[in-house]
Amino acid sequence: MSRARGALCRACLALAAALAALLLLPLPLPLPLPRAPAPAPTPGPGPRAPPGRLATAPRLRPDDVFIAVKTTQKNHGPRLGLLLRTWISRARQQTFIFTDGDDPELQLQGGGHVINTNCSAVHTRQALCCKMAVEYDKFIESGRKWFCHVDDDNYVNPEGLLQLLSTFSPSQDVYLGRPSLDHPIEAAERVQGGGTVTTVKFWFATGGAGFCLSRGLALKMSPWASLGSFMSTAERVRLPDDCTVGYIVEGLLGARLLPSSLFHSHLENLQRLPPDAVLQQVTLSYGGPENPRNVVNVAGGFSLQQDPTRFKSVHCLLYPDTDWCPVHKQSDLVSR
Ligand code: UDP
Ligand code: MN
């Protein structure tokens, strides 16, 4: 059951998501739902900014951001090693790894930023929601301004992320990410105690592309997300972690998802990203063994065999001074 519902959010509608991704590149999406009034735009000189958007960008420090990477024990070797050598090496203070088992070696590599959630190591709605609940609590405890969640098959462009977030106010309601579908999801909502079932419609950002929440909005989510209550909230709609975040933000709080085309999951065709746009994206992903061709199209010093995910190539284009990157003249690094 939970796997099936998970598939609804993360996989079954992959085709629709890919089409939507192509169609929905311009921001913002038209949102046909009846909604609570949007928060007032940030006052300031110049043209009116969308809700939460700042007219002038203040300086955001890397450690204002809390990046939670969701992983599981069996992925520590195959997936985490690559992330630690690439983007996490440039975002050490921001990044926290949430897993489901003790791994002293990973703890060492992660500089103490590895959290054993003690959630079960299975791909079920409950186990995934358990991890999200711990991520949420740790973020609140951290006092940081922004919470971003990614999977262990995402590349995060730390500077791109900082640049994007610095255009918003963390004290306003900001929920940024890539919608999984081209329409709001409809879920049956069961409220504890009463036997009534109502229908709720909301947008959500797909977890496989990563998403971010402002501290202001995260604090408002607390009655439904803190101290493990995220799990019972997920039970109300019987949906996985990423859908539950959308349910809380849109369905319960009346805030809204700001769609961003800068976040990417392997549900879309990553080859369609223009090579000269790859380095401007905030997150990337790769298809994995079942779809090895679904990777971003970048040139660089690594063949597809040497770098099947293309994360090493992307990393060396962003950070050519990395000690393991091939030494190239800047003029050689033009994308094919
Ligand atoms: N994951 C997890 N527990 C599991 C299986 C997967 O926490 O038992 C995490 C995994 O580390 C990744 C995310 O869930 O961050 C998505 O997993 P995967 O990429 O394997 O599947 P997808 O949903 O993208 O097809
Ligand atoms: Mn994945």
What's this model, at a glance?
The chain has eleven helices and eleven strands. The protein has helices at residues 2-10, 14-23, 76-85, 104-109, 125-142, 158-165, 215-220, 222-225, 229-237, 241-252, 311-318; strands at 65-70, 95-99, 114-116, 146-151, 154-156, 175-177, 185-190, 197-202, 211-214, 258-259, 283-285. Strand 2 (95-99), helix 4 and strand 3 form a beta-alpha-beta unit.
Explained architecture:
The chain is an alpha/beta fold and 336 residues long. 30% of the residues lie in helices and 14% in strands. The chain is built from eleven helices and eleven strands. The chain has helices at 2-10, 14-23, 76-85, 104-109, 125-142, 158-165, 215-220, 222-225, 229-237, 241-252, 311-318; strands at residues 65-70, 95-99, 114-116, 146-151, 154-156, 175-177, 185-190, 197-202, 211-214, 258-259, 283-285. The strands form three sheets. It has a seven-stranded mixed sheet with strand order 3-2-1-4-9-6-10. Strands 5-11 form a two-stranded antiparallel ribbon. A two-stranded antiparallel ribbon has the order 7-8. α5 (125-142) packs across α9 (229-237) and α9 (229-237) packs across α10 (241-252). The structure holds uridine-5'-diphosphate and manganese (II) ion.
